[in-house]
Amino acid sequence: MRTDRRPITASFLSCCLCSCVAAGVAGDPVSATPTASPASPTAGPALTATFTPEPPPEPVERPLYVIRAALDTRASEANGWTMPLTVQEQVTYTNRSGESINELVLQFEPARRADLFELIGVSSSLSSATFPASVADGQLRIPLDAPLESGESVRLRLEYRRLLAPENTLIGWNDYQIVLGNWYAFFPPYVAGRGWLAHPPGNVGEHLSFAYADFDVQFEWTGDASYWIAASGIEEKGSSPPRFRFTGRSFAMALTTQSPHARMAGNVEVIGYTRPEYEAQGEFITDIAAKAVTVFAERYGEYPHPRLTLLESELPDGMEFDGLVFLNPDLFPYYEGNGADYLTAITAHETAHQWWYGRVANDQAIDPWLDEPFATYSELLFYERHYPSLVDWWWWTRVDRYASKMCVDMPIYQFKGFRDYVDTVYLRGAQMLHALRMRMGNQAFLESLQDLQHSYFGSVIVPADAFRVFQSHTAHPLYGIWDEYLCLPPPHE
């Protein structure tokens, strides 16, 4: 592990929370001085949230997160090789579900490690003077004395501390990279008739779902000055500490000492980071991602951000965030440079998630078939454009030799192992989409994909949306295909 972290004077949250221009809504300033020193945290299951005497916040189009964070990278044996991350977060939320909401639920992944987490305080603009709240199982739950009616808004303020351990997780660090994946508290989507899409982790797959949101993030670190900062958004020029304003599905960050590689895909900058020993692979994945952005922008709609960043990372396989993609170095030794490798396919796959997860989202725990098969099938569209001679290779190597016979639309909780989950949802799901393409015809099928992207950009889709859109583009009944592949197909009309 790395021990040469140079000490410099720490300056914790030196700037106040302020407005987010992207949302056009002013955020009231919040004190940026931590209320406690970065000691070993203790986590309790309950707390008292206090009323903040202020006018109700103005409605926002999307959830608005104003985050001020500071990280001390000076890990040493004396502090257990941990790095203290201190966060002040202001969240403004408007109920646009059409239903009354009786409990606020935020996903709070940093709290899942109680031994590394401390919630210092939480306050709210709600009218109740005090009310019980609880942090458990990676969620912050606040029951409401009076429902939050449709059209009403609430503002929460949180202060918390999370120690980053030397581990290859979504919140952790190693000798060349510090990863901040789901590192802040956020509201999952609220869907009328379903409620909050807030689920526990499963043995496989992803349990978190994300609403499209506005972010105003200011982040500073002390210690090692040699890091590059990679994030979902682009750092504002001249900002100090670095500041990011971003609209998208999630906001992830990483500090890295890896080498950057750059390409342009039209007006989109694509940057890939790898260690020096993987320079060839770094150039390659950056090129593949740039080509994939061009293909998917043509097929689905414009990539919504000015930059896409890819990082070699010890996270398993590949992991997508909006504007930021992680790729495991285990893919790199099998690099061929001619497209006939998993590095090419997985890079295209994770890039496709910028559309199937980013632009259009789903309930990833209950309906993983509404993003993973689409990202997998996007690999084929990429190969058809750039490696047409390898299409048969892709079908056999990537899909057909592994695909299962189980229902594609099962929740993540019904799978016992990763292989069954991938073979069923990703691979048999790709076979299902191909069956739709063969039944509908190429043009109608591709128009359906584009329709889903255009009609639900920034939204969360449910199975009925996919059924309706595909059927609307063809006179051929599609029930036979849905019946063959799904446990819960649409009713025959």
Describe, in short, the structure shown.
The protein is of the alpha+beta class.
Can you put this structure into words, describing what you see?
This protein is an alpha+beta fold and 493 residues long. It is built from 8 helices and 23 strands. The strands form 5 sheets. It has a 10-stranded mixed β-sheet with strand order 4-7-6-1-5-8-3-2-13-15, with no helix packed on it. A 5-stranded mixed β-sheet has the order 17-18-19-21-20, covered by helices on one side. β17 and β18 (268-274) form a beta hairpin. It starts with 45 loop residues before the first strand and ends in an 8-residue tail after the last helix.
Main attributes of the structure:
8 helices; five-stranded mixed sheet; ten-stranded mixed sheet; globular; alpha+beta; 493 residues
Q: How many separate helices? A: 8
Please provide the count of β strands: 23
Strand content: 25-35%
Low-confidence stretches: 1-45
Strand order of the largest sheet: 4-7-6-1-5-8-3-2-13-15
Overall pLDDT score: 90
Q: Report the sheet with the most strands, covering strand number, pairing sense and barrel closure.
A: 10 strands, mixed
Helix content: 10-25%
User: What is the rounded Rg?
Assistant: 23 Å
- What is the 3D shape? globular
Task: Give the distance, in angstroms, between the N- and C-terminal Cα atoms.
Answer: 62 Å
Kindly name the structural category. Answer: alpha+beta
